[in-house]
Amino acid sequence: MHVSLDSALGRQRRLNSVGESVLQIAPNAAAAYSLRSLTGGDPTVVRVRRSSNNAEQDFTSSEVSSGALTSFVNEIQTLGTVTNSVGNDGFTLTNKSSTGFTATTDTATGVCGWPYTAKAGDKITVSFDAVIRSGTPQFIPRKATALSGSNLVDVVSDSAISVNSTASYSFEFTYDSDEAGSLTFSEGDDNADFDINNFQVTAFKGAGFVETWYDQSGNIKSAVQATAGNQPKIVSVGSLVTGGLRFDDAQKLETAGTFSFASGTTLSSFITNKSDGDESAYLFRFVSDYIVYNTAGGVRRVFAGTNANSGTLGSDEELWTTISALNSSGGTANFFADGTLVSSADANIGTNTVSNRVLNIGGSASTTHWNGTVNEVIFYATDQTSNRVALEANIMTNYVIS
Questions:
Q1: Residues paired with residue 316 on neighbouring β-strands, in sequence order
Q2: How far is it, in rounded angstroms, from Cα 68 to Cα 380?
Q3: Does residue 1 or residue 335 have the better pLDDT?
Q4: Ordered DSSP codes for 194-257
Q5: Closest CA to 270 of 358, 393, 150
Q6: pLDDT tens, position by position, 288-298
């Protein structure tokens, strides 16, 4: 008589009720991170730092989906009055305002502009009307707010725009430096006499980075990264990252509080992700006690002292479910990918337990950082075999995983 794996593992709840959230299907998670609501309400899910000026703001799940988060990241900075350069790099400026000026120069190298900060990868679109009486002035974003000397270096991958006739202009630039500080006009190669009117930034497409991924379980175990260079990306060139949070090399999040799971504890995790599969990459770990990861060859693994191989990565986003029984005499795990068992049944994972460890999402050293995206991380310090199918159905339906 054939006995199915589900029968061997016990009767499982097959479906979740219509509209039922993850934490309504299976309450009492140890920690739960997502950009959608896992509670059925509208919780605060993420704190984001924007690239343009490092301002930070919290967002609820509805604010992520409504576009409020990307609007914050792409907010156009207010322009003050145009600033003249100093020393030998100045125009004679009159009619100065936040939208234009009249500039003349006959002996000096003229430069003027508006302070505007941005980072590599950001895009900016500007428009203006020009009246050219003589010369061929140029426009280009540069490094410094203080427009002088060695600070007058370009910070975009594009060439300077020659404003060579009386007309209306509009251009998009892509930044290739983190030191952008100004939007500038110069006299070009000739002496110049010209007016700029109706200058404005019409669009800005920035980047957003996760400072805090809030825990929705109620246990106040938020995953945090205070160091800007180590924060995963959530917005890229003005749009939400496909797949949730993007981790590359040094990016990781960690809880401030620690976790301990004694021998006899079952850990159940549900992690929605897409690995680049190009190196050994730690996704979910309690230091070296317990790790869920993939190898450089694309093999999924769960580890608690001994590796349990669990098939090879697919090409699409996946839901990794692990039901791991920690035991100091020998633990076991069942690893499911998109609802299908991909490890051996009750595979040996070793004898480690978890003692006073932070949760790390995204790896540790440079050789084990997660390269890829993460949409959702939910885990329980209890056996969720009975809820597994219902939880997987909810998650896979939401992220269109098949």
A1: none
A2: 31
A3: 335
A4: EEEEEEEEEEEE--EEEEEE---SSS---EE--SGGGPPEEEETTEEPTTSEEE-TT--EEEEE
A5: 393
A6: 999 999 999 99
For the stretch 168-215, pLDDT in tens is 999 999 999 988 889 999 887 678 899 999 999 999 999 999 999 999
* Domain ranges in the chain with CATH number 2.60.120.200: 5-73+207-398
Do 82 and 101 contact (CB within 8 A), yes or no? yes
281 contacts 369 by C-beta, under 8 angstroms: yes
Half-sphere exposure of 86 (CA within 13 A, CB side): 8
* CA-wise closest residue to 282 among 254, 262, 259: 254
| Residue 150: band (very low, low, confident or very high) from pLDDT cuts 50, 70, 90 | low
String of DSSP letters for 56-88 = EEEEEHHHHHHTHHHHHHTPPPPP-S-EE--TT
As annotated, the residues of the chain forming the CATH 2.60.120.260 domain(s) are: 83-205
At a CB cut-off of 8 Å and minimum separation 6, what does 91 contact?
84, 85, 101, 103, 104, 105, 108, 110, 111, 112, 187
What's the pLDDT at 368?
Answer: 87
What's the number of CA atoms in the CB half-sphere (13 Å) around residue 375? 22
- Amino acid, single-letter form, for residue 303: F
Place of tokens 């270096």: 153
User: Mean pLDDT, to the nearest integer, of 85-113?
Assistant: 82
Q: Is the separation of the CB atoms in 359 and 221 below 8 Å?
A: yes
pLDDT at 105: 81
Is the CATH number 2.60.120.200 carried by domain 5-73+207-398? yes
Q: Which two tokens stand for residue 169?
A: 């202009």
In contact, 242 and 263? CB cutoff 8 Å: no
pLDDT the model gives residue 88 = 58
Across the range 257-281, mean pLDDT stands at: 96
Cα 248 to Cα 30: distance, rounded to the nearest angstrom: 26
Tally helices (H) and strands (E) across the chain: 5, 30
| 83-205: CATH topology | Jelly Rolls (2.60.120)
pLDDT at position 11 over 60? no
**Per-residue model confidence as pLDDT tens digits over 179-190:** 888 999 988 767
* DSSP structure class, residue 362: S
| pLDDT tens-digit series, residues 13-45 | 444 555 789 999 999 999 999 999 999 999 999
